[in-house]
């Protein structure tokens, strides 16, 4: 099955630019310029990826992101934001977006972001396939079980509902206990690109992950900050 993208953008020139360049990747792009119609389409159909402009008629891209994330936790989402609007970028990530692209953007940047998200989608699809064989078995650290075969995370006998990106971030950190990763290193390893200025992406995902896995997210014991450097996974935090 080919990949499909629902692009929600009310600027026709930008929408056509994105559609043409995603076509080069072999991606089918469905364009919608009305937020309310786009939300209905996103909830009723299965798309590999949603690309949402923030400012839309009727329903904003941020509202679409929030409602889709609530009903479709694994849906891949990229936000389109104005270069000067840091608030929109941070809010979009906090509402559940996997990544964001600032306008104006380069074709190379656009394609890199989309390829990165589609790669995660393909991994998740493979994980849900009955034909997948997990030769390594789950990663078990204390009371934390991370199963790559079905993208399942269980902590203290409770299954955590993580997005595909949150899962990859946790798995990467837990696979290297006590190793400190900078934000740039995490961008490259988890998101698949290295681009200065996108550290908000890492910070917001760390905060979202902590909210789901830490007993007290304000005093994290599992995913810890190493000030001035980055983040690390503390294995003692999951051993009870």
TrEMBL record:
Q: Which residues form the OmpR/PhoB-type domain?
A: 136-235
State one molecular function term (GO).
phosphorelay response regulator activity
List the stretches of this chain annotated as a DNA-binding region: 136-235
Q: Which Gene3D superfamilies match?
A: 3.40.50.2300, 6.10.250.690, Winged helix-like DNA-binding domain superfamily/Winged helix DNA-binding domain (1.10.10.10)
Please provide the record's keywords in A-Z order.
DNA-binding, Phosphoprotein, Two-component regulatory system
Any GO BP annotation: regulation of DNA-templated transcription
Q: Which SMART domains match?
A: REC, Trans_reg_C
The UniProt entry's GO CC annotations, sorted and at most eight, read: cytosol; protein-DNA complex
Domain Response regulatory: from-to ranges: 4-118
Q: Which residues carry this modification: 4-aspartylphosphate?
A: 53
Q: Which domain of life is it from?
A: Bacteria
What is one Pfam family matched by this protein? Response_reg
PANTHER family registered for this protein in UniProt:
PHOSPHATE REGULON TRANSCRIPTIONAL REGULATORY PROTEIN PHOB, REGULATOR OF RPOS
Q: What does this protein do?
A: This protein is a positive regulator for the phosphate regulon. Transcription of this operon is positively regulated by PhoB and PhoR when phosphate is limited.
Which protein, by its recorded name, is this? Phosphate regulon transcriptional regulatory protein PhoB
User: Which organism does this sequence originate in?
Assistant: Paraglaciecola arctica BSs20135
């Amino acid at each position: 099955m080919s990949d499909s993208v629902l692009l929600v953008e009310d600027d026709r020139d930008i929408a056509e630019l994105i559609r043409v360049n995603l076509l080069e990747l072999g991606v089918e792009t469905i364009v919608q310029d009305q937020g309310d119609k786009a939300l209905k389409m996103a909830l009723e159909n299965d798309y590999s990826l949603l690309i949402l402009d923030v400012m839309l008629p009727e329903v904003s891209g941020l509202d679409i992101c929030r409602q889709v994330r609530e009903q479709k936790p694994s849906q891949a989402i990229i936000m389109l934001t104005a270069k000067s609007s840091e608030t929109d970028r941070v809010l979009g990530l906090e509402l559940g977006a996997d990544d964001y692209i600032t306008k104006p953007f380069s074709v190379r940047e656009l394609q890199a972001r989309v390829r990165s998200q589609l790669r995660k989608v393909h991994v998740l699809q493979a994980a849900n396939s009955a034909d997948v064989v997990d030769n390594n078995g789950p990663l078990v650290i204390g009371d934390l079980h991370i199963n790559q075969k079905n993208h399942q995370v269980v902590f203290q006998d409770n299954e955590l509902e993580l997005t595909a990106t949150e899962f990859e971030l946790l798995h990467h950190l837990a696979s290297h206990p006590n190793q400190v990763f900078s934000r740039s290193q995490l961008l490259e390893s988890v998101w698949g690109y290295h681009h200065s200025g996108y550290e908000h992406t890492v910070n917001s995902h760390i905060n979202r992950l902590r909210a789901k896995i830490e007993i007290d997210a304000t005093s994290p014991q599992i995913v810890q900050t190493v000030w001035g450097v980055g983040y690390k996974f503390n294995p003692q935090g999951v051993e009870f």
